[in-house]
C-alpha cells in the first residue's frame, strides 16, 4: 500500500479540521473544503491523511477531489486568473480575451506560470454580465475587456 | 436574457452550450456522458465545414434521445439549444453543411478576410497588426491611390480579425 | 399487490417491485447493462447509469403518459401503470444509447478475452447493431496489471459494478469512480496502479465486469511451456470448487460434478501427476484443527495471551485484506498455509525427493476457482527463494480454455481417479469449496480429536448456506465445552468481525471462517462467469454437498493417505516439520506514514 510522506504540522492541521467535523465520513466535502482553504490545494498525501481521519478509502476521497472543479491537486498561482465564458461574455468575445491571456502568459488553461505568479482558469458566469466580457484576478473584477487590454492588466501584477 | 443579432452563428452558439454541458456532465449516465460529447463533436464538424445532411439527421435523433433518456435535469435539457436552433435556424445549419458558409462570420473555417484592392489605400496598418505575417503588398495601385494595395495569403491566415478591426477605410470584408 | 400492465400483459406484483422485475415475472426480459444483482446474497448494483433498459411508460400514477422514458431497473411500479418495453421510441433510445456506448469502446472483439462472455457484445448482437453512426474521441488509459487482475480501462462502460463490489461488498475500497463527464472512469486513488492500492486481488471486479475492462492474468502459456519441457515433471492439483463448475464451460448444467472427467482431461493435457487439492485440504484440517484445539486448551488453562478467536487462513484475498487493514491482529488467523500452499510445500519437499527429482524440476500447477491464488503462489515466503512451491495457478476458466484449445471435450472424457499418493481425499475436504465448509470440516475433526468420541451427527447444517444472514453464528457442544463459531463471506462482513475482535471479542467467538467471494470459492473470481445468477452458485453448492455425502470417508483425520504421511514424514500435526513446511507467517502491509519536515 501507500508510503505517505507528510510533515507533522500538516497532519495536525488536517486532524484538527477533521475533528471539528466529528471525523464523520459524511463531512468529507466540508473537510476537503477547509483543508484546501489552508493549503491552497490538495496533494495526494493530504488526501491520504483526510481518508485516514474520516475512516474512508482514499479512492473515495480522490473520486470527490477529481469530480468537483473547485478542488485542485495543482497549486494555484499567486494571482489566479479566471476568465468568464458565460453566455454573455462568450457572445461579446471572451474567447479572444482568453486567447490573449494564454498568449501573453504563455500557458494553457488550467496551468500555472513557471514562476508561480499566475494561474489561468475559465469559469461560467461570475454574475457581471453587464460588464461582459469579464475576467477576475484574485478577487478583482475586470470588465468590458478587449484583447489589447490584456498586457496592461498583467503588467499591474508584475 | 441575452439578445443576439446577426453576428451570432446559431450552430456555433449550440456548440458553445454543449461545451458547457459537457463540462458540467457528471458522467454517470451514458446519454449525457457520451451523447453530449458526440453532439459537440457533430457540431464541431458542422462548424468546421465538414458536416453532411446525414450529420444533421444524426444530430436531431441523438439530441432527442438524450433528452428522452438522460438521468437528470442537466442531461434532459442539454440538447435543447441544439433542438431549438435546428427548429428555428434550420437554414443556417443547411448553409454550413451544403454551401459551406457561415453568414455571421463566426466559424473561422468557413470565412475569409478579403482586401478589396479598389478600396485599399496601401497604408499597411493591416500588415503591421497581423500576428501571422500573412499580409503583403501587391503590384496593383488602384486609380486615385498613391500606394499599391495589400493582399492576405489565405492559407496562412489565422482569422484573428486584427486586420479587419484596424482598417479605417472599410477595405477589408468577411466573405 | 398492485396491478400493472407490461406489453399488454396484466400482472400483479408486490409494492416496491421495479419495472424490470415485474417484466421478468411476466416473462419479458428487458436488456440491462449496468444493473447487476446477486439475488439473495445482498449484492445489488443499481446506478441507473447505462440507460439501456429504458422503457416507455404510457400510463403513469396520474393516468397520463410519462414525459420521458423510464429506466426499468430503477423505476418502481405504481398501481395501474402501463409500460411498453419495446415501443419504437424505447427501441430507438435503447439502440442509440448502445451505439453511444460502442462509440467509446474499442472494436477488438476478436482479440478480447471476454469475447463470447461479454454482455455488451451480446447486447449489440441482440439489438442488431451493424454500424456505429457516431465517430469521435475514444477514451485511452494505460494498461495496468497485478499478479491476478488485468485492467484495460479503454473498454470500461462505467457501469460501476466493480466499484460497488470493491467498496460495498468487499469494503476494500480500491476502486472508485473518478473524474467527471466524458473522462469518468473507475480507478484506484490518484489513478495509481491497482497493485499500489488497497486491492487484495479477490478478483470479484473481474467476475462482475460486463465487458473486457477487467480480466484475469492469463498463465496458460506458462503452463504449456512447462508441459512441453521434457526435463520437467509437471504436477497438477485441483481445488474443491473447480469440479462443480468446470462442466458449465462445456454446456453442462450448473452443479454437474465432473471430478472424474476432469482428472481424465488433465491427464490428456499431459500432466505427469494429477493430484488433488482436496488431499491437502484434509491436511489443512489436521493442522488448523490441531492449532485451534491448542489455542482452546491454552484459553481454558487461563492463558491471557492466547489469540482468540482464531480465523481461517485458506482464502488468500482475506489474508491480504487483514495484512493491509488489521496489522494489529496478525496473531489471530491460523498460521496454517492454505491447501494450495500446503500442497506446494508437500510436492516440493516430500514428493520430489520421493520420485527422485530435484524440486526445481518439478513444476507445480494449481487449478483454482480463484484469482487471488495467482498472487498467493508468488508470495516470497511460499518458496525457497529461487523456486516457488506452486509455480503457476490457473483458474477454472483458464483450464476450460486450455482443454478447448487442445480439442479435449470434457463431455466425452471417461471417469478416472486421481493419482496417488496426493490424490485421495474425504468429504470434509470437498466442502472447503463452499462457505462454511472449512468450519464444518474442522469441527468434524476437532470434535472427535478433542472428545475422543464419534460425532453423533456428521452434518453441521448450521454451517451451510449461501443465502440468509450475512454473518452466521452457532455454538457447538464439544462434550460440555461450548465452542462459539462464526462464518461469513464478503470482506465487508469480515471487517465487521475484525472490528469486533479489536474491541475485545464481546461475542466470545472461538473460531471464525472467512471467505472473500460470494458463497465461498464456488463463487470465486476464477469460476465460469455467473452473470449475477445466484442460482448457479447455489447449484454448485448443492453439488459440493452431494459430493461430500457420496464419499466413503467424510472426516479428514480418517484419510488413510493423511494418516500415512504423518506416520512416514511429518510426525504429528503442528509438530516441528509441519511448522516448518505447512505453516506460514503474516506481514504488516498497511499504509506507512513518514513524517517529513
Strand order of the largest sheet of chain C: 2-1-7-5-6
What's the CATH H-level superfamily name of the largest domain in chain B? Answer: NADH-ubiquinone oxidoreductase 51kDa subunit, iron-sulphur binding domain
How can the largest sheet of chain C be summarized? 5 strands, mixed
Q: Helix and strand succession of chain B? A: HHHHHHEHEEHE
By helix and strand content of chain C, what is the structural category?
alpha/beta
Could you estimate the helical fraction of the residues of chain B in percent? 40-55%
Total DSSP helices of chain B: 8
Helical proportion of chain C, percent range: 25-40%
Largest interface: chains, residues each = B-C, 27 and 32 residues
Assembly context of the chains: heterotrimer
Shape of chain C: globular
Query: Over the alpha carbons, how many angstroms does the gyration radius of chain C reach?
Result: 25 Å
The CATH class of the largest domain in chain C: Alpha Beta
Mean pLDDT of chain C, rounded to whole units?
97
The DSSP helix count of chain C reads: 18
CATH architecture descriptor of the largest domain in chain C: 3-Layer(aba) Sandwich
CATH topology descriptor of the largest domain in chain C: Fe-only Hydrogenase (Larger Subunit), Chain L, domain 3
Strands side by side in the biggest sheet of chain B: 1-4
Architecture overview:
The complex is a heterotrimer of chains A (158), B (175) and C (597). Chain A is an alpha+beta fold and 158 residues long. In chain A, 44% of the residues lie in helices and 15% in strands. Chain B folds into two domains: 90 residues, de novo design (two linked rop proteins); 63 residues, Alpha-Beta Plaits, CATH 3.30.70. Chain B has 175 residues and is mainly α. Helix content of chain C is 33%, strand content 15%. In chain C, the strands form six sheets. Chain C has a five-stranded mixed sheet, with helices on both faces. A four-stranded parallel sheet of chain C has the order 14-13-16-17, sandwiched between helices. By secondary structure, chain C is of the alpha/beta class. Chain C is built from 18 helices and 21 strands. In chain C, a hairpin with a 2-residue loop joins strand 18 and strand 19. In chain C, helix 2 packs across helix 3, helix 8 crosses helix 10 and helix 8 crosses helix 14.
Amino acid at each position: 500500500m501507500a508510503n505517505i510522506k507528510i510533515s507533522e504540522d500538516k497532519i495536525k492541521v488536517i486532524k484538527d479540521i477533521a475533528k471539528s467535523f466529528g471525523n464523520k465520513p459524511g463531512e468529507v466535502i466540508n473537510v476537503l473544503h477547509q483543508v484546501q482553504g489552508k493549503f491552497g490545494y490538495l496533494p495526494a498525501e493530504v488526501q491520504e491523511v483526510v481518508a485516514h481521519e474520516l475512516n474512508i478509502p482514499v479512492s473515495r476521497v480522490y473520486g470527490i477531489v477529481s469530480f468537483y472543479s473547485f478542488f485542485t491537486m495543482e497549486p494555484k498561482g499567486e494571482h489566479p486568473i479566471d476568465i468568464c465564458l458565460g453566455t454573455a461574455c462568450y457572445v461579446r468575445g471572451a474567447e479572444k480575451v482568453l486567447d490573449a491571456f494564454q498568449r501573453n502568459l504563455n500557458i494553457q488553461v488550467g496551468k500555472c506560470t513557471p514562476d508561480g505568479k499566475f494561474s489561468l482558469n475559465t469559469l461560467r458566469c461570475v454574475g457581471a454580465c453587464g460588464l461582459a466580457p469579464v475576467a477576475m484576478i484574485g478577487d478583482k473584477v475586470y470588465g468590458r475587456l478587449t484583447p489589447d487590454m490584456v498586457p496592461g492588466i498583467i503588467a499591474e501584477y508584475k | 436574457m441575452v439578445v443576439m443579432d446577426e453576428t451570432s452563428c446559431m450552430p456555433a452558439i449550440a456548440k458553445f452550450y454543449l461545451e458547457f454541458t459537457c463540462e458540467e456532465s457528471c458522467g454517470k449516465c451514458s446519454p449525457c456522458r457520451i451523447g453530449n460529447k458526440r453532439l459537440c463533436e457533430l457540431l464541431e464538424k458542422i462548424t468546421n465545414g465538414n458536416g453532411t445532411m446525414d450529420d444533421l439527421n444524426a444530430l436531431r435523433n441523438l439530441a432527442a434521445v438524450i433528452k428522452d433518456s438522460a438521468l437528470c435535469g442537466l442531461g434532459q435539457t442539454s440538447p435543447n439549444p441544439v433542438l431549438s436552433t435546428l427548429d428555428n435556424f434550420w437554414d443556417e445549419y443547411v448553409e454550413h453543411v451544403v454551401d459551406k458558409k457561415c453568414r455571421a462570420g463566426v466559424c473561422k473555417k468557413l470565412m475569409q478576410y478579403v482586401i478589396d484592392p479598389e478600396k485599399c489605400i496601401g497604408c499597411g496598418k493591416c500588415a503591421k497588426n497581423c500576428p501571422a505575417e500573412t499580409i503583403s503588398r501587391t503590384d496593383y495601385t488602384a486609380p486615385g491611390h498613391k500606394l499599391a494595395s495589400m493582399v492576405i495569403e489565405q492559407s496562412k491566415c489565422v482569422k484573428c480579425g486584427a486586420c479587419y478591426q484596424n482598417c479605417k477605410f472599410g477595405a477589408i470584408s468577411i466573405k | 399487490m398492485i396491478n400493472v400492465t407490461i406489453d399488454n400483459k396484466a400482472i400483479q406484483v408486490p409494492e416496491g417491485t421495479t419495472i424490470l422485475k415485474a417484466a421478468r415475472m411476466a416473462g419479458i426480459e428487458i436488456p440491462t447493462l449496468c444493473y447487476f444483482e446477486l439475488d439473495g446474497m445482498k449484492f445489488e448494483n443499481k446506478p441507473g447509469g447505462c440507460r439501456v433498459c429504458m422503457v416507455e411508460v404510457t400510463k403513469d400514477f396520474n393516468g397520463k403518459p410519462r414525459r420521458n422514458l423510464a429506466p426499468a431497473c430503477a423505476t418502481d411500479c405504481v398501481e395501474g401503470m402501463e409500460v411498453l418495453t419495446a415501443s419504437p421510441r424505447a427501441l430507438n433510445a435503447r439502440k442509440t444509447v448502445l451505439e453511444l456506448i460502442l462509440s467509446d469502446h474499442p472494436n477488438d472483439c476478436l482479440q478480447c478475452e471476454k469475447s463470447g462472455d461479454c454482455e455488451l457484445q451480446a447486447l449489440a448482437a441482440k439489438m442488431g447493431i451493424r454500424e456505429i453512426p457516431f465517430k469521435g474521441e475514444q477514451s485511452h488509459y494505460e494498461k495496468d496489471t497485478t499478479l491476478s487482475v488485468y485492467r484495460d480501462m479503454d473498454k470500461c462502460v462505467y457501469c460501476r459494478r466493480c466499484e460497488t463490489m470493491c467498496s460495498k461488498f468487499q469494503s476494500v475500497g480500491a476502486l472508485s469512480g473518478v473524474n467527471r463527464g466524458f473522462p469518468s472512469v473507475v480507478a484506484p486513488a490518484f489513478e495509481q496502479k491497482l497493485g499500489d492500492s488497497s486491492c487484495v486481488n479477490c478478483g470479484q471486479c473481474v467476475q462482475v465486469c460486463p465487458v473486457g475492462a477487467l480480466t484475469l492474468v492469463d498463465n496458460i502459456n506458462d503452463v504449456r511451456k512447462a508441459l512441453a519441457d521434457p526435463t520437467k515433471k509437471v504436477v497438477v492439483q485441483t481445488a474443491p470448487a473447480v469440479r462443480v463448475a468446470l462442466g458449465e464451460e462445456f454446456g453442462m448444467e450448473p452443479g454437474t460434478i465432473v471430478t472424474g472427467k476432469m482428472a481424465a482431461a488433465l491427464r490428456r493435457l499431459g500432466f505427469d501427476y494429477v493430484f488433488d487439492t482436496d488431499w491437502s485440504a484434509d491436511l489443512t484440517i489436521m493442522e488448523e484443527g490441531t492449532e485451534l484445539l491448542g489455542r482452546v486448551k491454552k484459553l481454558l488453562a487461563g492463558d491471557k495471551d492466547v489469540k482468540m478467536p482464531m480465523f481461517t487462513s485458506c482464502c488468500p484475498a482475506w489474508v491480504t485484506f487483514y495484512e493491509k487493514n488489521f496489522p494489529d491482529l496478525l496473531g489471530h488467523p491460523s498460521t496454517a498455509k492454505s491447501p494450495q500452499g500446503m500442497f506446494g510445500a508437500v510436492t516440493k519437499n516430500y514428493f520430489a525427493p520421493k520420485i527422485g527429482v530435484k524440486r526445481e524440476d518439478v513444476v507445480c500447477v494449481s487449478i483454482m476457482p480463484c484469482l487471488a491464488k495467482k498472487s498467493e503462489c508468488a508470495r516470497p515466503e511460499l518458496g525457497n527463494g529461487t523456486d516457488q512451491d506452486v509455480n503457476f495457478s490457473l483458474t477454472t476458466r483458464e483450464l476450460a480454455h486450455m482443454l478447448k484449445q487442445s480439442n479435449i471435450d470434457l463431455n466425452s472424457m471417461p471417469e478416472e481417479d486421481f493419482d496417488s499418493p496426493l490424490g485421495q481425499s474425504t468429504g470434509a475436504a470437498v466442502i472447503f469449496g463452499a462457505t462454511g465448509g472449512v468450519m464444518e470440516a474442522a469441527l468434524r475433526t476437532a470434535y472427535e480429536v478433542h472428545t475422543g468420541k464419534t460425532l453423533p451427527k456428521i452434518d453441521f447444517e448450521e454451517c451451510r448456506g449461501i443465502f440468509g444472514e450475512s454473518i452466521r453464528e452457532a455454538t457447538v457442544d464439544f462434550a460440555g465445552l461450548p465452542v462459539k463459531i462464526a462464518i461469513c463471506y464478503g470482506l465487508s462482513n469480515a471487517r465487521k468481525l475484525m472490528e469486533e475482535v479489536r474491541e475485545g471479542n464481546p461475542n466470545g467467538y472461538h473460531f471464525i471462517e472467512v471467505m472473500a467471494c460470494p458463497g465461498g470459492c464456488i463463487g470465486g473470481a476464477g469460476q465460469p462467469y455467473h452473470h449475477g445468477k445466484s442460482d448457479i452458485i447455489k447449484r454448485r453448492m448443492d453439488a459440493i454437498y452431494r459430493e461430500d455425502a457420496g464419499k466413503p470417508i467424510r472426516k479428514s483425520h480418517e484419510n488413510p493417505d493423511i494418516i500415512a504421511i504423518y506416520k512416514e514424514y511429518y510426525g504429528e500435526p503442528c509438530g516441528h516439520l509441519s511448522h516448518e513446511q505447512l505453516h506460514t507467517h503474516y506481514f504488516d502491509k498497511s499504509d506507512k506514514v513518514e513524517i517529513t519536515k
